[in-house]
Write a structure and sequence with these properties.
By secondary structure, the chain is of the alpha/beta class. The chain is built from eleven helices and eight strands. It is globular, with a radius of gyration of 19 Å. Nicotinamide-adenine-dinucleotide (NAD) binds next to helix 1.
């Protein structure tokens, strides 16, 4: 299997932008695809804004910024991903949406290209089986914010070849990440452990055990976590969080994974966290 030079990114939300930035920073040529031209332009503006802020803070020099931005091409045409050695999708956490995207990617991306999903919980094998190359499909799960967080989970569905997993591990390591390999189980390692905690923090708020701020202060102060559970849910996105809990609950049936009503009501109200300006906190 050849090396990875050109990386496609599909999805222009929080994670798509982060993954595109990480790959470009690490020297890869990136082609980032959004469904619309305006989405593609917004994605470029978002990434350039992040890089500009880094320059203003003295963390990046202007030449480096220009080099990184110059390695990112944005498009609304999925056909532009044809020559990618690796494509990582970060679209909506919905298995039907992802399966149909994988079928489309399989049609357009060169046969030797690896197709990867950034899903937090969904069965990667379902996406692999939506293609004619299930041996070249795996999970490459970044954490939010992707440029900052050190961990990547490389997810091995039962269909993946060793070459695919090795290439994904090498890619993640080359991005400066600590890569771990994990089998294809809902939530992999991190979210399977993290989400009962986050869900129970909302339950505690519902039960009036402590206030929002005090729950967050407690977990920061006692466990040295950089943010409390309610602030973390806002960062992840409450819609994405409910989708993660639903997938975990469907797989394991554990009541700790059943999303508590407040989470669903906030999603129904459009209070999705930071990305919508309002969640447990206002932004
Ligand atoms: N938010 C996190 O903390 C986090 C962390 C790791 C992985 N992920 C995973 O990354 C993926 C994206 O999450 P996000 O937080 O970036 O979400 P987001 O809501 O910020 O972005 C979702 C993207 O999907 C696109 N989209 C929506 N419906 C679509 C459809 N029908 N077809 C194609 N594209 C569609 C949207 O336009 C948007 O670009 C999910 O699989 C999620 O589980 C999220």
């Amino acid at each position: 299997m050849g090396g990875i030079n050109v990386v496609g990114v599909v999805g222009s939300g929080i994670m798509g932008a982060g993954v595109a930035e990480v790959a470009a920073r690490c020297g890869y040529t990136v082609i980032a695809r959004s469904r619309t031209r305006s989405g593609a332009d917004d994605l470029r503006a978002e990434i350039c804004g992040v890089l500009d802020r880094q320059v203003a803070k003295g963390r990046l020099d202007a030449d480096e910024r220009d080099d990184i931005a110059g390695r990112i091409d944005v498009t609304d045409d999925i056909g532009h991903l044809a020559d990618c050695d690796l494509v990582i999708e970060s679209v909506l956490e919905d298995v039907a949406v992802k399966r149909s995207l994988f079928t489309e990617l399989d049609r357009v991306v060169k046969p030797e290209g690896i197709l990867a999903t950034n899903t937090s919980t969904l069965p990667v094998v379902e996406m692999a089986m939506a293609t004619r190359r299930p041996d070249r499909v795996c999970g490459i799960h970044f954490f939010n914010p992707a440029p900052v967080m050190k961990l990547v989970e490389v997810v091995r569905p039962i269909t993946a070849s060793d070459d695919t997993i090795e290439a994904a591990m090498r890619f993640a390591t080359s991005c400066g990440k600590d890569a771990i390999e994990v089998v294809d189980r809902a939530g992999f390692v991190v979210n399977a452990l993290l989400f009962p905690y986050l869900n129970n923090a909302v339950r505690m708020l519902e039960q009036g055990t402590a206030s929002r701020d005090d729950i967050d202060v407690a977990m920061k102060g006692a466990c040295n976590f950089p943010m409390g559970p309610l602030a973390l849910l806002d960062l992840v996105g409450l819609d994405t969080s409910v989708a993660i809990l639903d997938a975990l609950h469907a797989e394991f049936g554990d009541p700790n994974y059943a999303a508590v009503p407040t989470l669903r009501r906030k999603v129904a109200a459009g209070h999705l966290g930071r990305k919508s300006g309002r969640g447990f906190y206002d932004y």
